[in-house]
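The passage that follows is intended for readers who have already worked through the single-chain material. We present the inputs for a multi-component assembly, then the predicted structure in tokenized form, and finally a short commentary. You are encouraged to pause after the input and sketch how you expect the pieces to fit together before reading on.
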Amino acid sequence: MALLLLAFFVVSCATPSLTRWMSTRVFYAISVLPFGAFAYTLTQTPTVTAGETITESIPWIPQLGIVLSFRVDTLAWVLALIVTGIGGLVLIYCARYFSRSEPGLGRFAALLLAFAGTMYGLVTADDIIVMFMFWEITSVLSYLLIGHYIDRKESRGAALQALLVTTFGGLVMLVGVVMISVQAGTTSLASIVDQGLDSPAATVAILLILVGALSKSAIVPFHFWLPAAMAAPTPVSAYLHAAAMVKAGIYLVGRLAPGYADAPGWRETLVVLGVWAMLVGAWRSLRQYDLKLVLAYGTVSQLGFLMVIVGFGGYEAGLAGAALLLAHACYKAALFLVVGIIDHRAGTRDWRKLSGIGRQSTVLAAISLIAVASMAGIPPLFGFVAKEAVFAAFLDAAQSGDGWGWVALIGTAVGSVLTVAYSMRFFWGAFGRRPGMEPTELHSDGWGILVAPATLAIITVVFGLGASLVDPFLAPYAETMPGPGDYHLALWHGFEPALAISAIVVILGVVMFVKRKSVARMQDAVSPMMDSSRGYWATVQFIDRLSARTTIFAQRGGLPQYLGTILVVYVLTLGAASLMNRTWPDSIRPWDYPEQVLIAVAIAIAAVMAGQAKQRMSAVLLVGTTGFGMVALFALHGAPDLALTQALVEMVTLVVFVLVLRRLPTRIAQRNKPVKRLVRATIGIAVGLIMAVVAVVALGARQAESIGKEWPRLAVEEAHGMNIVNVVLVDIRAWDTMGEISVLVVVATGIASLLFVTGRVGAIPRLQGSRQQRRGRNRRRVIVDPLAPGPEASSNRMSWLLAGRTLARGHRSVLLEVLVRLLFHPAILVSVYLLFAGHNAPGGGFAGGLLAGLALVARYLAGGRYELAEAIPVDAGKILGIGLILAVGSAIGSLVFGGAVLESAYFEADVPVLGHLSFGTSTIFDFGVYLVVVGLTLDILRSLGAEIDRQQEDADLSAEAQDDFSESEAAR
Amino acid sequence: MTAILPLLVLIPLIAAAVVLVLGAYRRAQVVVSGVALAVVSVLATILLVHVDRSGTVVVDVGAWDAPFGIVLVGDRLAIIMVLISALMLLGVLIFAAGQGIADGDRDTPVSIFHPTYLVLAAGLFDAFVAGDLFNMYVGFEMLLSASYVLLTLAGTGARIRAGVTYIIISLTSSIIFLASIAFIYAATGTVTIALVAERVRDLPADVQLILCISLLVAFCVKAAVFPMSFWLPDSYPTAPAPVTAVFAGLLTKVGVYAIIRTDTVMFTDVNIDVPLMVIALLTLLVGILGALAQADIKRLLSFTLVSHIGYMIFGIAIGSQAALAATIYYIVHHITVQTTLFLATGLVERVGGTTSINRLGGILKAAPFVSVLFFIGAMNLGGIPPFSGFLGKIGLFEAGVNLGTPLSYVLIAVGALTSLLTLYALVRVWNMAFWRSENEVEGYSSPLLDSLAEDPEDRGVTVKTKRVPALMLTATTGMVALTVCLTVFAGPLFDLAARTASDFENHSTYVDAVFPGGVE
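Having made your guess, compare it with the prediction:
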């Protein structure tokens, strides 16, 4: 069976390509598969009839208990025959139904075949979760098939509706499925039914499963999707919405009935809703003019009928249910196919526009008559046999004192009267002659299209006549029901109460048909009590509106709201936890030395003022002040290294801000109302307070020694360094540093990205011909300024910096140029010293890199962007890259040499000038850090300095051009 | 094997450096990045097999023993996360390369995109294998700073605005994270996760709770858990398609991963299951309602992303072995399917010129194959069987039913409802964008579209390029195939997830791996 399913899947996938060269004949080809499955199922007949089962099982997800297990017993066998047999017939029908030019034919064929396979899987699956999977897949395929005419709005809407309604039921059912499988401790349907659990949880689970079954089988209140689904092509209606998919719910109820028909709520629900659906469907059917809708509402009605009998429980009901299932599948599918043919031949399905078709298409009329009569329950057809069995079963139950038996009997009898009426109206409408109307002109479409409905009609007759021969094939299912029974299907049972009921039903039905005019008047008078379809739309729109409102509420405030929410959550959760906290430290030491207080106050004041600042520059300076507060704290705490680094960082940051602020308005726009600012200030202060409280609690709770106490010893003894900070950075926690320098690389890249937009490649423009002019005697020559032509620029003023002349005279400062000229090289030297000395003395790659960076900043500030390019004529990206390669490479290198990653090796030597140095491989790493920091500074200067200069000049130039233009305009 | 673990981080980093040095050689950059990620994928696979057989791999970086140095811990969960992330990053890289070859690299300039992308990868991998809280923070910083750059690529106004929101929120969460690390260090004197896990048990329960909450708030912002999720849909969708795909697939999951570590390794004694379930519930609901209100597919997907985080939080809150197994499976599923769907949406945008369902139409006719790719992804996200979204949910529901508290039943119901609404949102997209024909779009009205909000940054219809570059299509197809594999191999994958979850049953599995001789 699994192989068969695989075949369905594979062929479905191949069908679109097959359709390309086989056109509509593809349907013949692929019908082989369902017919094959049909034949295969037939071979299982002897086993099944003997009351045994065929099983197959492939493990899939043992953790969830999901097994690809299949099990064919009588019920599965009957349904497998129905879905494969009718599936094959419908495919054959399709070959004639569709024209070669039908759009989306390949898609349609593939989906229909896939559907047949899925249905086969659904009815044979034993694992309840696997069964549910097929269940949901049929919903999706049904969605795609209903929406086949994709450019019709109503078919798209109907498809969506069908999917949502069935999936809603499906998901409710899923919860039930999971619950029942957990309760039963197995996912095997057979075992779940055998156990017949009666715990409250199991009962709830079963009722949840029923919701799924009811929605799938279009029972009130979910029935409305089925008539809307008639927007699908007729073969789809015949197969999915008459014979197969809507039967899934019936199947499931029939599957569970042997174990759960007596569960509380089961019978009540099914009888009430089933009868209701039967009456509502039939009543609505009587009003329809579209033949397909007549059948659609009729299907709702019949499904209600089936629900009542299949779910009723007991031997007789089981037998009658199986028989009715079979009968319904045959006649309803046949009728849909007939309507499709009428539509095809006459071009309409509205019977008010049809006349005299019966005379012209006699075979069609005959097929239709058989099917209709079977539906109405006229002997000797199979529909009659089934219906009589149903009445007998209910009568039996009623007589044995079951009140629900009476309800079911009377309800279904009334429903059957309506059924007879709409059946007759259907036949009369489709094939009758309207007085005063010309016979409808028909297109011929050959006899091939009749094969499928004719086959079904023949089966209806044969099964009716040979009812007692069908009986032993269905009886094994009835035997799984609790309780005894000796009823047998037969055409003639003698004069019995059930026969009398059948007769009365037919007579009343005929009367209703004859009096159809008064019935129609009554129809108009009684407005529909409940319109579920309206309920569907109301629900959908309610959800849409709810979501729109919720979302607007949640997303309205933008960043301030999001940030505020996060901080409020932080304050509330930690505040609540702190309030509940019972463990407070016994004593709190407020400070180590009084300067801390002073610095802390200064930092706090600067921070608050930064928030209040009106001008960007002052805000930046105040933020810088907090940074220098940290410098002071580090210095006082005995960490000169950190203080040095922090101070350098603050300086570079300040320069960067100044560079950026050139292009921003000086004042900070303040748009917030004072109230809002108050709220924000409150949140900010609360966050600060909470953090302080948590810090106090956390520190007070300390039990164990800090691992940091070991670091001094480790640094000296094992890492050969006196500078703990540096040892931590480049050795003990070098892995962190490696990550952080990659952050620097990314930041540099990001700034470049924002300023250059399309790429980071390309060095800063250099002076023309500067390479030659650097050589010996040319050094003092005047360099021609590329940007500012004119006599002024080529003045032979002495220049201290290479690119000094490129600056406009007003921007130059000789003093600065001289200073930079004198300081640049010593600064670079010191930075290198810091790099190498860092292991034992304050310094290190980071501080060294920052100092070198500051030297570059000075060159840039004094000489402009061309000076920068002359100072370091390398692409910043390359410096960053090489720095990162050194750092990461030293990590990989240690792996290559068989050490642990980033493990250091040491060499010691006396170096002139620098003194005794202990050189470790960690210094290579540190050199990488140095390069990355230099690269970062260069990149920032290149982007925020040079590029903004250029943009500014461009803007100035175009502004000048604009001025010139408007002046000349004015002159005119 | 101990060499492989650090290499997972080192390879993308050195590749980033090489790419920077290569500068103008675009093809070479693409090749280097691709090879690096492919190598990481292979190494992670090898390592996963090894770890699964012989147990957790632990590396003391620089031969400094824990807790004094940094320790890298490769247990099943960490390596699974690295592997799936590497595969995603590789797929998206190929997609981006295809896009770049077709359009020129205006949207994802190679010289910026590649190094940043690789650092993002390295940061992700580092955050997963970090056995040290501060190093985990460094990993976060790497991936976040890279994500800032990627989000603002090409520097359009919309992206800068989105970037400001994103950067400030991320920085806030980083500050909270950093402060939490400081608190934990203050209380335990260490940042090595395994030692924290041990020492935290000696602290009073009140203090444990405070520390745990402080850490969780930071991670919940990153994972976009309600009510700290609003920022996400305002920032992710504006980025270029491949970038959004990576963000959506991976970044929030790092937060979820960290929450798992917090809850199952560090603070095992803290019981916050009920509050977690409540926020899971709200995350599911508010998220999916947000998705239903969107006309823009990318924004819609961003909201479903937020919503489905709720499933994972639900699983973590249940905390049983089965629940954690299902959560791990669901994380892998969600990473794959979200990334894939965003890529597919990128293709739809090329074909249709927009991602607003108010203006899209006729995609099924114009690009049937792209449509199929989108449809499979959509059904998967909508929890339709047999796809992995359904299987993960089954696992969670089973675990929830086994827990059996009223709240867990409410969550199951809400989970099912979320599934339905997700399906509704996605099928509506299918109805409008794929089925509806292009000439219907003008003047179309439907009650289904009434209350949809457009993307505020929407630029209207841009250029439509009917031809989809083969490389982009291949990448997306490969990803879809991967999502299907999650179904086909669900059995072994769930087994693996169950073994992974059993690592957490007893928190000492993790601690013992780091301190084989016992703590101190």
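Commentary: The mean pLDDT of chain B is 92. The CA atoms of residues 137 and 178 of chain B lie 7 Å apart. How closely did your sketch match?
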